[in-house]
Write a structure and sequence with these properties.
This protein is an alpha/beta fold and about 325 residues long. It has two domains: about 110 residues, NAD(P)-binding Rossmann-like Domain (Rossmann fold); about 180 residues, Rossmann fold (3-Layer(aba) Sandwich), CATH 3.40.50. Helices cover about 35% and strands about 15% of the residues. It contains twelve helices and twelve strands. A seven-stranded parallel sheet has the order 8-7-6-9-10-11-12, sandwiched between helices. A five-stranded parallel sheet has the order 2-1-3-4-5, sandwiched between helices. Helix 5 crosses helix 8. About 40% of the residues are buried.
Length: about 325
C-alpha cells in the first residue's frame, strides 16, 4: 500500500507519522499546490490531506487511488460527488480536537473580555512602573459570571464550550439544527439579541454559509463578543470587519478564514491591529495531544478500510 501525505506542514513539524509508516510505503510532501495534486496522487492508493482541495479535475488521472483520509472533521475541501463517481472512499476524523478548540475559544473570550493584552502591555512597556500607581483598572472589564453565552452549533465542541461557560457562571443558550438535551435552545435571532458572548461551532455547508452576516450583527448588543472557530465562510467576513470598524461589536475573535492564509485584500487585514480584535492563524484545533489523536485516527481509518470495515466514512 502506498500512502501519500500532501500537506504535512499543516499538521506541524513535531507530529508523529509513525502510525502511517506501520501501514505501508509513505511519501510525505510538506505542501502541495493545486496544480500538483493530480501528479502526486496518480500512483498512490491512499491520500492523506488536511487543507488541500480535491476536485474532479485533479482526480481524473488517479486510477489507483482508493481512499482519501481527511485530517479533520470538516471535509468541505473535498468534492464528494467527484469521489463517488470514481469510487474513491472518503473518511474524516471526529472528536479529536474538541478539548483543543474549546480551550482556545475560552482563551479568546477571556482575553477579549478582560483586555489582557492591554494590561500585560502596560507592564511590558514600562508605563505601569512609570505611573507610580499600585494598580491600573482601565480599560474597564467585567466578570463573565452572570453573562449570557450563546453557542451557534451545539455538537461536541459547542457542548464542551457550553460546559465551560456554565462553570464560569454564564447562562448558556444554544442554536442547533437538531434537538439537544441539557441546554436552552433558541432561534438564531433570539440568541443574537440576548447573548453577551457568541461562539460559532458549525460545519460549513450550503445551509450554514454566510449564516452570520450584517442582519444578525444588527441584532447583537454593541458590547457583544463574537468568536468564530468553525469555518471562515460561516460568517460574512466583510460585515464583521465593518462592524468592528464602526464600533458595533465589543470584540471579535477569529481563528478561521474563507481564504487561508488571508491576503492583504481580505477584510480582516485592516482590523488585525485593533485592541478588541484577536485573530489567530487557524491553530485552535492543533494542541499537540489533538494532533497525535488525529494521526492515530487516520491510521485506524486506513487500516479499517483495507479490512473491509466502514469507519468514519463520509462519502
Amino acid at each position: 500500500m502506498k500512502i501519500t501525505v500532501l500537506d504535512a506542514a499543516t499538521l506541524g513539524t513535531d507530529v508523529d507519522l509513525s502510525p502511517l509508516y506501520a501501514l505501508g510505503e509513505v511519501v510525505v510532501h510538506a505542501t502541495t499546490a493545486l496544480h500538483q495534486v493530480a501528479e502526486r496522487l496518480a500512483d498512490t492508493d491512499v491520500a492523506v490531506i488536511n487543507k488541500v482541495r480535491i476536485n474532479s479535475e485533479n482526480l481524473a488521472p488517479c486510477s489507483r487511488l482508493r481512499l482519501i483520509a481527511e485530517c479533520a472533521t470538516g471535509y468541505d475541501n473535498i468534492d464528494l460527488t467527484a469521489c463517488r463517481q470514481k469510487g474513491i472512499a472518503v473518511a474524516n476524523v471526529r472528536g479529536y480536537s474538541t478539548d483543543s478548540v474549546a480551550q482556545v475559544t475560552l482563551a479568546m473570550a477571556l482575553s477579549l473580555s478582560t483586555h489582557l493584552p492591554a494590561f500585560s502591555g502596560a507592564v511590558a512597556n514600562g508605563s505601569y512602573t512609570a505611573d507610580g500607581v499600585a494598580n491600573r483598572l482601565t480599560p474597564v472589564y467585567h466578570e463573565l459570571a452572570g453573562k449570557t453565552w450563546g453557542i451557534v452549533g451545539y455538537g461536541n465542541i459547542g457542548a464542551k464550550v457550553g460546559q465551560v461557560a456554565a462553570a464560569l457562571g454564564c447562562r448558556v443558550l444554544a442554536f442547533s439544527r437538531t434537538p439537544k438535551e441539557g441546554v436552552e435552545q433558541v432561534t438564531l435571532e433570539d440568541l443574537c439579541r440576548r447573548a453577551d458572548i457568541i461562539s460559532v461551532h458549525l460545519p460549513l455547508t450550503e445551509e450554514t454559509c454566510g449564516l452570520i452576516g450584517a442582519r444578525e450583527i444588527t441584532m447583537m448588543k454593541p458590547e457583544t463578543i463574537l468568536i468564530n472557530v468553525a469555518r471562515g465562510a460561516v460568517t460574512d467576513e466583510a460585515a464583521l470587519a465593518r462592524a468592528m470598524q464602526e464600533g458595533k461589536l465589543g470584540g471579535l475573535g477569529v481563528d478561521v478564514y474563507s481564504v487561508e492564509p488571508f491576503p492583504k485584500e481580505h477584510p480582516f487585514y485592516a482590523i488585525r491591529h485593533l485592541p478588541n480584535v484577536c485573530l489567530t492563524p487557524h491553530m485552535a484545533w492543533g494542541a499537540k495531544e489533538a494532533r497525535d489523536r488525529c494521526l492515530a485516527e487516520i491510521a485506524r481509518n486506513i487500516a479499517a478500510f483495507y479490512a473491509g470495515e466502514c469507519r468514519n466514512r463520509v462519502d
